[in-house]
Design a protein that fits this description.
InterPro entries: LprI-like_N. This is Lysozyme inhibitor LprI-like N-terminal domain-containing protein. Keywords: Signal. Helices cover about 65% and strands about 5% of the residues. The chain is mainly alpha-helical. It has a domain at about 50-150: Substrate Binding Domain Of Dnak, Chain:A, Domain 2, CATH 1.20.1270.180. α3 (about 65-90) packs parallel to α5 and α4 packs antiparallel against α5 (about 125-150). It starts with 6 loop residues before the first helix and ends with a helix.
Length: about 150
Amino acid sequence: MMRPYTLKTLLILSSFWLGGCAQSTQAVEPSRTELSTETQGSKEPAKTQRSAEYISCSQKALARLDYTRCQSAELQREDVLLNQEYQSAIKRIQTFRHEDLKHMQNLWIKYRDAKCNFFYHKESGSGGQNDAMDCYIDMSQQRTDELKALF
């Protein structure tokens, strides 16, 4: 019996397939030019944007795998931005609060993973994987903005 892949495994595998959609992950924030219309089950649209690189890549996508590659590259860009903002927040707060922020960030990661994994399960097929990827992208972008506002 084949064991189903976890979302993390699929994300790792899809990162190897980035090919033509991958851009280098630099310290420069990509321009966010298009609002995301993904809702992850919400009645309100997400208030996040997609990078110009993502828009260009997704417009060229011919199959779901191509679209997944675009999402994976976008998630990598957002993850870089989130990590940069987290490191910046650490530098802006007093030393005795570093552990509190680290704990808060770890709790947020657990929440994000649980929420986004809800959208992907073995019965949902590849559409569920794309929904989960959009969730990861949106939540990472929202967390980056939240860290900027908090600290």
